[in-house]
Write a structure and sequence with these properties.
Blueprint: E1 2-3, E2 11-17, E3 22-28, E4 32-48, E5 51-57, E6 60-77, E7 83-93, E8 98-106, E9 111-118
Antiparallel strand pairs: 1-2, 2-3, 3-4, 4-5, 4-9, 5-6, 6-7, 7-8, 8-9
Protein name: DUF6504 domain-containing protein
InterPro entries: DUF6504
Organism: Murinocardiopsis flavida
Length: 119
């Protein structure tokens, strides 16, 4: 843990974790928030208004409870030089675990990718 200045703001820890070397950023207050970077394909099973409503990832189903925000970054491009849309969602797993996730859509292939998860 790295103490922050002032002492009351909490502590931050950053480091690699797991077999895949996922980067973990934790910030402790009264609770710990963990951000994991994945960049893994997901299977979006249902959409509402162009946003994911239900998706499968690593053998679990996630229901989107709320779309927090959508960003269309004209500067962000895929390998095929197509625009990327980022959707931040509040999702709940089939086991009742709540997460915040960043999901991107490659408009050329219509494939979705899970980028980041806050747990």
């Amino acid at each position: 843990m790295v103490p922050r200045s002032g002492g009351d703001e909490g502590r931050i820890r950053i480091g690699a974790h797991g077999r895949r070397g996922r980067w973990i950023i934790e910030h402790e207050f009264d609770y710990t928030v963990r951000v994991s970077l994945f960049n893994e394909r997901i299977d979006v099973r249902s959409t509402t208004g162009g946003h994911p409503a239900l998706f499968a990832w690593r053998g679990h189903m996630y229901r989107v409870r709320r779309v927090i925000g959508t960003w269309h970054d004209p500067g962000a491009r895929t390998a095929r030089d197509t625009p990327v849309t980022l959707v931040r969602v509040a999702a709940e797993s089939d086991h009742g675990e709540s997460n915040i996730a960043d999901i991107t859509l490659d408009s050329a292939t219509e494939k979705w990718t899970l980028r980041r998860v806050w747990t």
